[in-house]
From TrEMBL:
SUPFAM superfamilies: FKBP-like. The keyword Ubl conjugation does not apply. This is GreA/GreB family elongation factor. Pfam families: GreA_GreB. Residues 87-147 form the Transcription elongation factor GreA/GreB C-terminal domain. GO terms for molecular function: DNA binding; RNA polymerase binding; translation elongation factor activity. Residues 1-24 are annotated as: Disordered. Gene3D superfamilies: Transcription elongation factor, GreA/GreB, C-terminal domain (3.10.50.30). One of its GO terms (biological process) is regulation of DNA-templated transcription elongation. Keywords: Elongation factor, Protein biosynthesis.
């Protein structure tokens, strides 16, 4: 039977995976973000060895693609530290905002790969981060469907 009719690739046939999108925006990272990139590379390298040992060509293709992505992200990473003593919101700052209902939320502005909104880590490219950067305590910003007041920067 021709391999054209086989649903799963055989050991000699691994479909080319599309590369992960690196984007075109600057790759700003916090110190934590840089450590996370290093950890992802180490994790992928360990997984690569396991896949080689198991002779798992599909896993090898996926891991190699991810490893190329993480290495590219690491090579373009620009460590960015907030300027001490600044009174305006900057990349890397933790910002607390107060919603009209009185609820206070805390966000830290971080790099793309480090973002985790559920943990309060928002990408510097997110709409909220774009509203916050350059603002001061007491300023009002658009935060979703409502406005919010910046109550602290740190």
């Amino acid at each position: 039977m021709s391999v054209a009719f086989v649903k799963e690739p055989n050991e000699d046939q691994v479909e080319g995976l599309p590369e992960r999108d690196l984007g075109t925006d600057p790759n700003f990272v916090t110190k934590r973000g840089l450590e996370m990139l290093d950890a992802e590379i180490a994790k992928a390298e360990a997984s690569l060895e396991e896949a080689r040992t198991a002779n798992d060509k599909i896993a090898l293709a996926m891991i190699n693609r991810d490893l190329r992505y993480w290495r590219a992200r690491r090579s373009t990473a620009q460590l960015t530290v907030p300027q001490a003593g600044s009174e305006v919101v900057q990349f890397g700052d933790r910002v607390e905002i107060r919603r009209p209902n009185g609820k206070v939320q805390s966000y830290r502005i971080v790099g793309i790969d480090e973002a985790d909104p559920e943990e309060g880590l928002i990408s510097y490219l997110s709409p909220l981060a774009r509203q916050l950067v350059g603002k001061e305590e007491g300023d009002t910003v658009r935060a979703g469907a409502t406005e919010a007041e910046i109550v602290s920067i740190g």
